[in-house]
Amino acid sequence: MLQKLSVAVLMGGTSSERDISLISANEVIKYLDRNKYNILKYDTAKDIDRIVKDRKKIDVVLPILHGPGGEDGEIQGFLDILGLPYMGSNVVSSAIAMDKYATKKIYKYAGILTPKFQIIKSKKDKITIKLPFVVKPVSQGSSVGTSIVKDKKQISKALDDAFKLENRIIIEEFIKGTEITVPIIGNENPKALPIIEIVPPKGKFFDRKNKYDNTTQEIIPARISKKLTQKAQKIAVKAHKEIGCLGLSRTDMIIKTKNLIYVLETNTIPGMTSESLFPKSARATGISFTKLLDRLIELALDKKN
User: Is 271 one of the catalytic residues?
Assistant: First the structure.
């Protein structure tokens, strides 16, 4: 009988996405194969000392964390210091993907189409992007603090909401079109999973509320041509590689016309409940959530940081 691996599931944390992390982590724990793994649970808001103490009995780590402190390279650096293998991208790639400004710079350098953008650090800074535009904090996830601004009256509140979270804000050209997201799995040879088309409620966008209240349609595979599907998947693989992602990622895009695909951002630790976008896409290819977790653990143990 094979010896079980000890899998540490990290959850919670202190970001604004703590509640989503706890939901995701508990789903992961539910679907991990008990015949293969001993499961250890840690809340990074209070269990850091316990992780250090237990490090010699941990074989691999699943950081099911979102937002600052979990997805931005911080916990990855901590795990590197402890010498523990973990699911997902390394310190540098995690930090880049979490910083929307840095990510967009890489997109542009790599020839990946992304909406026009600028960064501001004060409400006094001049906004050069024409209305309508999107206001986003630079380093938040789940669309926290994000607003679509359609007229001048909405600008002040949108900036206030974003600046409450951090002192650097992205102003991004609003692109109207078909919203899709492309999950990627793999290390040196990443592969795209089926594309998901996202259809928020009429007049809304895919914000935090609509992500988790079941009002948004998630259509797999996306209702786009085979040619466009292949193009979007190729772009997502390129984004994954250019940022240096490992294990998994999910890149969000907008299709403006039949040929123009704008890349919005790349997530290094996408939602991981059984009904989250990444597992749903994998399931469309016949990969159960349990088998997906097996594969992500294999990739964590195989990757070269």
Answer: yes
DSSP 8-state code for residue 261: E
Whether omega before 221 lies within 30 degrees of 0, making that bond cis, reads yes
Active-site entry in 12, 13, 15, 17? 17
Q: Where are the beta strands (DSSP E) in 95-177?
A: 117-120, 133-137, 147-149, 169-173
| 95-114+176-302 and 5-88 share a CATH fold | no
Lookup: tokens for 135: 């206001």
Confidence of residue 140 (pLDDT cuts 50, 70, 90): confident
Annotated catalytic residue, options 80, 101, 212, 244? 212
Domain ranges in the chain are: 5-88, 95-114+176-302, 117-173
pTM for this prediction: 0.91
The amino acid present at 180, given as its one-letter code, is I
Residue 304 confidence (pLDDT): 58
* Joined tokens for residue 102: 């840095």
